[in-house]
Amino acid sequence: MHAFASSSPAAGPAWRLPPLRVGLLGIGTVGSGTCRVLARNQALIRDRAGRAIELAMVAARNLARARQIAGPGIEVLDDALRLVRHPQVDVVVEAIGGCGDARTLVLEAIAQGKHVVTANKALLALHGDEIFAAARAQGVMVAFEGAVAVSIPIVKALREGLAANRIEWLAGIVNGTSNHVLTEMRDKGVPFDEALREAQRLGYAEADPAFDVDGIDAAHKLALLAAMAFGTRIDCGAIAVQGIRDLQPDDHALARLLGYRLKLLAVARRRPEGLALSVRPTLVPARSLLANVDGAMNGVMVQGDACGPTM
Ligand SMILES: NC(=O)c1ccc[n+]([C@@H]2O[C@H](COP(=O)([O-])OP(=O)(O)OC[C@H]3O[C@@H](n4cnc5c(N)ncnc54)[C@H](OP(=O)(O)O)[C@@H]3O)[C@@H](O)[C@H]2O)c1
Question: How do the residues of the chain divide into helix, strand and coil, expressed in percent and rounded to 5?
């Protein structure tokens, strides 16, 4: 107990570092959540990180809304480029989404020598080569734990925890919206359209759910996971992708009869001829761990040569 307390960061010289100043781009679902967590868990984050992490400023399009969410004392700008170049911003958190402004701003942040944090899987899956090369050249980090499998720390697990393993395959339920829809169809026997409408009503699905139910979002996440697991670049366009729109309640009933459950599974597997990557509705043995990841939850299983199957 004593040794633990004396080895806490609070005792170390890191405490003398000035706060790390965060510039936040976009204050929608992810951005406003980031604001709230940084404020609510300020002391906890400072103790764990050994340095205070403070929200310095926000760039948004709707300034009144942004001021209301960010709270007093946080500067709100309508010019995202100015935030990225601002001398009082150490780290840029990109929470805009898409590959337009987000790409320009992330590349500019890197050019300015700033570390970047993003949850934008589409940006990294489609422009990761350019972004990570720029970051390497500048000696800055692009951190993206939030981009894959919501709050499961799978990026750190693959990069660090399982670093000594040769990964044979990984399989994941990495899209909460489609998993919620599939779970409702199976449990309530309702058709796809009805389950999707309910997911939208509950806020689990976007007004335009195509990225989620057509497997595109899962393919972006699979590209990132596979790149880390197999140490290679992944061409997103080469992933075989099939969504869940065509599934019927009867498909779930039949799967149950056979002892399986239907899941939208993202799979990357090492084969002698190369990597096989797919996102498609898959029969998963009903008693397996992955089959029991239900609702909006995510789960990733990794088979390493040393660790064996790890969820
Ligand atoms: N939502 C999730 O659960 C979730 C989970 C993991 C990862 N992600 C990823 O996180 C990213 C953000 O998602 P989100 O759900 O938070 O999206 P969102 O709710 O649509 O928020 C994006 C915000 O960025 C603002 N914005 C757009 N362009 C801007 C610009 N040039 N300058 C300043 N602000 C700008 C938008 O303003 P307007 O309101 O004016 O359009 C909006 O408020 C996406 O890449 C998404 O894939 C989301």
Answer: 45, 20, 30
